[in-house]
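Supplementary Methods. Inverse-folding protocol.

Structures were first reduced to a discrete structure-token string of length 377. This string, shown here, constituted the complete conditioning input.
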């Protein structure tokens, strides 16, 4: 017969009570959970073997990722030749196989000029390490041919952030408000396991299952200020099917903007999702509303600088998936590629919007390797 002291019995009772308090939130309905204090309504992650759920093994499409890297490298080579003081003459610069580029010059002398230019493009994979491997391996294979190959170390370096962004993409799209107990596990260099408790079908969370890897479409367009003075008439023209002037398009305001109608903007723009380097939420502070800050890559920084410098006092529309989120006024030229705008956001909606944009910016294809369902135990 076992004997427990009163102190041990008391400790056991306290431990059982604390355990019940922590897990009871998993049994509440959403309405009940919303009515209790925050400290006691955070569910515990009970893993798929108890609540059941969906498990998916996904893989970054490495060939597609490498193809994009090769396109960028080829563009860099062509630019290096174009801006060289003593420009080498080429016959072609093209991809050759899955991981290399072949550069063919017109003569041995042209190859002599081209080789140091191409070699200068090969940078350390990790600039902080003296002995770091290079991003590319440059080999002169003949008097007129240079082969540029992406190194294994660089391939891993490219895969790592893209896997991380893939995880962020799914977390944002499936759980933008951080209310689900999603679990992600890295599997090798290019795969990750995603577990969604208490869900048997991804269609329940993402209705467009066949296209759940779709990219969010974000773009910045100059507003036609002349048309803005007669928005109502222009809107009627759009709704009744009359044609807009060439090069213009009508976008409605998003419901979240708190505005009705829409604006006519220039259809063509150079500021798109491909420009985005960072996109983050900024919480409300004192008299400033919640908003988002953004930054562009080097190429689009120049384009945005020119656009803002030439259109001070006018507005640009921030268009997300065909709806205007905001239309801030250009106060001055923006030369550093960074900006901020408000859009009737709360702190939470600003975070959700930034999360959605960052997730949608992921351009690489993902492959579903395996998908399994686990019923509740």
């Amino acid at each position: 017969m076992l004997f427990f002291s009163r102190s041990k019995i008391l400790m056991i009772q306290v431990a059982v009570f604390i355990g019940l308090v922590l897990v009871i939130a998993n049994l509440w309905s959403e309405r009940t959970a919303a009515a209790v204090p925050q400290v006691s309504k955070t569910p515990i992650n009970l893993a798929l073997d108890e609540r059941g759920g969906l498990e998916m093994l996904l893989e970054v499409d490495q060939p597609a990722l490498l193809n994009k890297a090769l396109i960028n490298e080829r563009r860099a080579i062509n630019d290096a030749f174009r801006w060289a003081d003593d420009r080498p003459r080429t016959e072609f610069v093209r991809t050759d196989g899955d991981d290399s580029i072949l550069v063919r010059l017109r003569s041995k002398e042209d190859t002599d000029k081209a080789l140091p230019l191409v070699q200068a493009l090969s940078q350390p994979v990790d600039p902080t390490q003296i002995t770091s491997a290079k991003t590319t391996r440059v080999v002169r294979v003949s008097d007129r041919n240079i082969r540029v190959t992406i190194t294994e170390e660089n391939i891993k370096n490219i895969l790592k952030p893209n896997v991380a962004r893939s995880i962020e993409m799914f977390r944002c799209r499936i759980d933008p408000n951080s209310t689900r107990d999603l679990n992600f596990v890295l599997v090798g260099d290019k795969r990750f396991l995603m577990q969604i408790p208490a869900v048997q079908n991804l269609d329940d969370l993402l209705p467009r299952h066949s296209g759940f890897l779709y990219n969010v479409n974000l773009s910045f367009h100059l507003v036609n200020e002349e048309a803005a003075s007669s928005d109502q008439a222009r809107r009627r023209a759009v709704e009744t099917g009359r044609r807009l002037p060439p090069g213009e398009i009508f976008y409605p305001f998003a419901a979240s903007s708190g505005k009705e109608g829409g604006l006519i903007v220039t259809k063509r723009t150079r500021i798109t999702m491909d420009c985005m380097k960072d996109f983050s939420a900024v919480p409300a502070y004192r008299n400033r509303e919640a908003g988002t800050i953004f930054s562009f890559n080097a190429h689009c920084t120049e384009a945005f600088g020119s656009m803002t410098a030439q259109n001070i006092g006018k507005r640009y529309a921030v268009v997300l998936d065909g709806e205007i989120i905001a239309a801030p006024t250009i106060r001055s030229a923006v030369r550093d590629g960074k900006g901020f705008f408000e859009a009737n956001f709360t702190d939470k909606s600003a975070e959700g919007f930034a999360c959605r944009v960052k997730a949608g910016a992921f351009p690489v294809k993902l492959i579903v390797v395996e998908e399994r369902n686990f019923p509740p135990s």
